[in-house]
Amino acid sequence: MIRVVVADDQAVVRAGFRTILESEGDIEVVGEAANGDDAVTVARARVPDVVLMDVRMPGSDGISATRRLAGAHVPDPLPVLVITTFDLDDYVFAALRAGASGFLLKDTEPDDLVTAVRVIASGDGLVAPTVTRRLIAEFAKVSATPPPGPDPLRNLTDREREIFLLVAKGLSNNEIADGLVLSASTVKTHVGNVLMKLDCRDRVQAVVLAYETGAVHPGR
To answer: Which PANTHER family has this protein been placed in (predicted)?
Structure first.
């Protein structure tokens, strides 16, 4: 079973998410919260596979809660899927920088929500297609000048760097395998090694790193 905690300040929204998710045979909602502080408390107590997190909640908001559950320095981070009514750039970037593994809008179709939860639970990440292009453009702006300090890619082998760049461009494991004439299992192993060396929990965080360091640029 995929265990999910739902955090949203509206009881009717939480009930709706519970109904959608628990209509599937492999998903169970194990906790609910109406604000960011409660979301952190419930998630740490229940240790779910996915935290479904609203952005705008009273008191501590979803971005702050995401940072406390999945931030860069959290010892045992939990996968967070941010879902919100507001298709605003600031929310998207803040959520991903806070450590979220994905971002969806509340008007997404029920089947897409279920798929997203399964993807996040499996260790991958995703962002709603409606925000992907703006996301890439924004990270491209900040990646014009790579940040000072050691190259975070310095420990990658040539093959791992090659695969990292393809992951950052949005290719799936199967697409990478076809392009490099490798087996899917070999690519999966390489991707796992890349994420471990770069201290990225999932592909979304790897994409963020690629654009922030200037390793990848739109259209190239």
So the answer is: TRANSCRIPTIONAL REGULATORY PROTEIN NARL-RELATED, TWO-COMPONENT RESPONSE REGULATOR
Record the pTM: 0.72
Q: What is the pLDDT of residues 7-59, one digit of tens each?
A: 999 999 999 999 999 999 999 999 999 999 999 999 999 999 999 999 888 88
> Of 92, 112, 137, which residue constitutes the final position of a domain?
137
d(Cα 184, Cα 177) in Å, to the nearest integer? Answer: 5
Beta strand 80-84 pairing with 50-53:
parallel
Residue 206 and residue 167 in contact, taking contact as beta carbons nearer than 8 Å: yes
Angstrom distances, CA of residue 217 to CA of 99, 137, 184? 22, 9, 26
60-110 confidence digits (pLDDT tens): 889 999 999 998 788 888 999 988 876 565 677 778 778 888 888 888 899
CATH of the domain at 196: 1.10.10.10
Domain span at residue 191 reads: 144-212
Residues 30 and 128 in one domain: yes
